[in-house]
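Entry 14. Structure prediction run on the chain below.
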Amino acid sequence: MTPGWRTKVTGFFLLMAVAVSGHAQVWLDRLPVDVLDVRPPSLRVSGQPGDLRIEETSCRSMPATDLRRRIVNTAIQEWAFFGFSVIDQTVERDNRWRRRFGPDLLADDLNQRSDDDLLPVATTVGGYWSATPDGRWMLERQNQTWNGPWGYRSDWRDHWSAAFISWVMCESGLDEMDQFQRSIAHHDYIDQAILARDGQAPDSAYIAYDIGDAPLAVGDMLCRGSRPEYFTLDDRRAHLQQGARTHCDIVVKLDESAEEIWAIGGNVSDSVRLKRLPAGTGEHGLQAVPYNGRRMFAHLQLQAPDIEPNAIDNSPSMLALRCNRPMQQRVASVGIILPGTTSPETC
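Output returned:
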C-alpha cells in the first residue's frame, strides 16, 4: 500500500467516542469505497426510527474470483463498525462472560444511550433487513416498536443475525437467490446448501458438509441449531423447509497453532461480534469442536478460490489500524494482535 493510501485511510477512519454509562465507548466508521468497495448498509434506508424505510433492495454482481475475500472483508468492516467486540468461547462457561471484550454499540442500557449513538445502529440494521425478501415487513414491525413508549430506545424486536449474513452476501456479489437464499432465517440458506450437497441446487454458492468432512477455509460458515438441536446434516434433512432456531457465523481466521477458529456473526448479544471458537485437528485439518454446551452441526463451504487462513490480518480494516496508535492499543486489549506496525512516515 502506498503512503498516500494510508494518509487517506487515517483521515477518514475516524475514532469516535460516545459517553455511555459513565465510560467512553469507541467504534470506527467504515472505510471509503475507493479503499474498500463496500456500500454502507445505512445507505439502503431512509428516514428516522419510527419511520425508517427501505429504499434499496438490489444486490451486487461481482466476479467469483474475488468473492471469498469480499465476504471476509465486508464482515470484518461491520465488526469494526460495531466496536471490535470479542467473545472468547475457548474458555469454560464460568469464565466466559469475564472474557467478553471490547467496546460495543449495543451492550449498554438502552436508557443510557444518546440519540447520536442509536441512529447509526438503527439505519445499519435496517440496511441489513433490506437485503431479505421480508425486509420491509420486518422493518415495519420495528417501526411500530419504535413508535411505542420507549421510542428510539426500544431494542430490536426480531433477531437480525440472518439479515446480517444476507446483507454481507448481497453486498459481496451474490445477487441471485439461486446462489444464496437471502432470508430473515438462517435455516433457509442452510437448507439450500444441504440441497446443493444432494445435487438439487447446482448454482448454490455454498455446499453443506458435516463438521470435519471437508477442509474449512475463511469465508466458509459454521452453523448450529438450538431449537431443535442438530448434530448432523441428516438431523436437519428430516426438517427441510421447516422453521428452526439456527445461527451461522462467517469464518475469518484459522489459527492452527492456537487451535482456534475466529468467526463473525450478527445479533450476537445484540451486536456484530467476533467469536474465538475452540478447534481440533481432523482428517481435513482444523475443525470446530463442541464448546460451552453448544456444537456446530453444519459447515457451509463456499465454492470460490481459497485465500490465506489469516485473511483478517490483511483486511483493509485491520491494515488501517496500523496507522492508528490509540486504536491499536484498544484492539490489543480485546486479544487482537496486529502482525506488525507501520512507521509514522508511511501513515
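The two ends are 10 Å apart (CA to CA).
Filed with the rest of this week's runs.
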